[in-house]
Amino acid sequence: xxxxxxxxxxxxxxxxxxxxxxxxxxxxxxxxxxxxxxxxxxxxxxxxxxxxxxxxxxxxxxxxxxxxxxxxxxxxxxxxxxxxxxxxxxxxxxxxxxxxxxxxxxxxxxxxxxxxxxxxxxxxxxxxxxxxxxxxxxxxxxxxxxxxxxxxxxxxxxxxxxxxxxxxxxxxxxxxxxxxxxxxxxxxxxxxxxxxxxxxxxxxxxxxxxxxxxxxxxxxxxxxxxxxxxxxxxxxxxxxxxxxxxxxxxxxxxxxxxxxxxxxxxxxxxxxxxxxxxxxxxxxxxxxxxxxxxxxxxxxxxxxxxxxxxxxxxxxxxxxxxxxxxxxxxxxxxxxxxxxxxxxxxxxxxxxxxxxxxxxxxxxxxxxxxxxxxxxxxxxxxxxxxxxxxxxxxxxxxxxxxxxxxxxxxxxxxxxxxxxxxxxxxxxxxxxxxxxxxxxxxxxxxxxxxxxxxxxxxxxxxxxxxxxxxxxxxxxxxxxxxxxxxxxxxxxxxxxxxxxxxxxxxxxxxxxxxxxxxxxxxxxxxxxxxxx
Length: 532
What we know:
Blueprint: H1 8-14, H2 33-43, H3 50-59, H4 66-70, H5 79-96, E1 106-115, H6 116-122, E2 129-133, H7 163-188, H8 197-212, E3 221-229, H9 230-241, H10 246-259, H11 264-267, H12 276-292, E4 305-311, H13 315-324, H14 339-347, E5 365-373, H15 374-380, E6 387-390, H16 403-407, H17 411-432, H18 434-437, E7 446-454, H19 455-465, H20 472-488, H21 490-493, H22 510-529
Antiparallel strand pairs: 1-3, 2-3, 4-5, 5-7, 6-7
């Protein structure tokens, strides 16, 4: 029993690092990431309990320098000892672990003042990195920086005389329209009985910012937080180092420097001369060589579209076979049964979208090609458990003019601003190249991308992204994806019970803000019942 494993002195040493010392399930705390990674690495090669490994081979091991890393924070004079301690843990990792061990240690990192384009590159990792980005729905983007200038990327690669005036003009239009659009929306949607002032103001401001977000250029600066494991961060740094945008290559160096201070053993190869830099150089070389062989035409303005390019006519049989397989003793290709009966059993009692669709749905595969505005792409790009890629953002496919602005009589202001930016984009494209020219393109412009997704992810994406409070642009894309699936696999699609094909809420955030008020009220009541 774990409860009798440690004497009182050992108990005192260990209690700081575990949520309990007497139960078989416990969490680690107050341990640096390098210690956790090394601890789990050793754990896989011993019969000892994890807590005993920490005590015997780390805390009580003189060479480990454990107290320097997990004990009292070191002073400047202790940094040599800290480096020696790090070297000890690196030896443990080399001796007992492989690349998978780096998935057992993670870090949180903040990236501020990065462009929307760079943020998309950082968020493109599908496994091992979880991002959260500043929202265009809840945050005004026209607040100036400390130097009084609008916040958009200004790098040496953008040394074109027309770039900053064009970006300034977009921000100025956005800033000029925020208040009149907000006031017009509040006049159209007056505060209702029982609705708090906070909820009403928040919902109407979100509607205004949703209508105006298309004015923001792709160079707009944003903030994001990333949590990831060491293996994922190592690859992310290498990938960013091989990126076509200089901003991303600079971010690779910045990320490597900061993560080397908290998980050095796990990112040491990200930019080294043996593995990291050659890999980054190869990525860049492959990109250039492939681009030379790609056909190019003269694209024209294209309305938002969702096309289903590929699907499996035999998908239903495969899903049914996969569903039956775990409960049978027959091979997968010998499974069979009544499809309706099996699917009814598979989805019985599913009462909300948070009850995930079963894994068997992954045997149905689809390829979608989507053309929509970059702002909608930015939202849908968050779905990482699928295969996706996009073309460069440009202006030739046209842009979306929000119907709400037209109804308010402000559509001309919006159109004038984005079309002036489009003219500058063409000049930048000729002189600086297509990749760098993306920075000036307003995110109202269309971009083309593809999704290769299985039916399980289609269920998740479409049920989540068609909720009434979602932005109309991405709601439409998700609805169209679902409709394309329903056309070819009506029975399978019929089990996606929580896809909303309705018009949505005209004031999208109103219901959500009311629910938030209810939660806040419940918390306040609970706090009043248990005063501190």
